[in-house]
Amino acid sequence: MKKVLLHSFILMGFVCAVFTTSAQTADEVIDKYLTAIGGKDKWKKINSLKMDGQIEVQGLEIPFKVQAINLKGLRVDAEFQGNQIIDITTPDKGWMQNPMMGKTTLQPLTPDELSNKLDDLDIQGPFVDYKEKGSIVEALGKDEEDGNEYFKIKLTTKNKNETTYYFDLKTNLIYKQESVTQQQGQDVKMTSKMLDYQDTDFGVKMPFKVDQNGMMLVTKTVSTNPPVDEKIFSDK
């Protein structure tokens, strides 16, 4: 009996050591990433953003504008062939207008659609104080792609949204993220590759190109902590 108990304690100790090492490794990777993009303290000072750019897909260029106040509201405006596309998210409501999907006026988001978008309200980034935000991380080990080595971390937010991030071990930057989102009632796997990292006017680094399932989102200008009217985050 004593031998059985001894083996049990040894096994428990080994399991605890493995989990502790994994957690430490994940936090080390996250800390290096936050340093590489300008530092956690600087990101925590970002309370609003304005971005302009274009979506490039199949030879087309679709201009877009993003306006956001941290944890309060996010609005994306785009125009395609004379059609106005609007996407608005707030902590408790959201709306979308997309004539190409039959929504010629702002229509309320479903609870599932809103839940998928809530984490986008955090413009300071999901890894800044992730524990305090109620998120958890899981180290998934290393992986290789295109001759580069990456460390994979799955992050689950308090809204139960799961995303797997690939951290480039050379640059400490996020190269790719994978998640599953709801689109028209169906689960769709989203893969985004973060490209062309640049310093912004505030001295933080972010990707100016994002390849999302073959659709390139190109950021042209970024304005940090500009005035943003909260009235734009409504259906009025």
Q: pLDDT average, as an integer? A: 89
- Structural Rg: 20 Å
**How many domain modules?**
1
The N- to C-terminal Cα distance equals 72 Å
Counting copies of identical and different chains, the oligomeric state is single chain
Note the overall shape: globular
Residue share in β-strands? over 45%
Give the helix tally.
Answer: 3
CATH fold-level assignment: outer membrane lipoprotein receptor (LolB), chain A
Strand element count: 13
Supply the helix-strand structural class: alpha+beta
Low-confidence stretches: 1-24
Q: What is the helix content?
A: 10-25%
Major β-sheet profile? 13 strands, antiparallel
- How are helices and strands ordered from N to C? HHEEEEEEHEEEEEEE
Report on this model:
The chain has 236 residues and is of the alpha+beta class. It has one domain (2-232): outer membrane lipoprotein receptor (LolB), chain A (Clam), CATH 2.50.20. It has helices at residues 2-36, 40-43, 111-117; strands at residues 48-57, 60-69, 73-80, 83-89, 94-98, 103-108, 136-145, 148-156, 162-168, 174-183, 186-199, 205-212, 215-224. Strand 1 (48-57) and strand 2 form a beta hairpin. It is globular, with a radius of gyration of 20 Å.
List the helices and strands and how they pair.
Layout lengths: L1 H35 L3 H4 L4 E10 L2 E10 L3 E8 L2 E7 L4 E5 L4 E6 L2 H7 L18 E10 L2 E9 L5 E7 L5 E10 L2 E14 L5 E8 L2 E10 L12
Provide key terms for this protein.
236 residues; outer membrane lipoprotein receptor (LolB), chain A; 3 helices; disordered N terminus
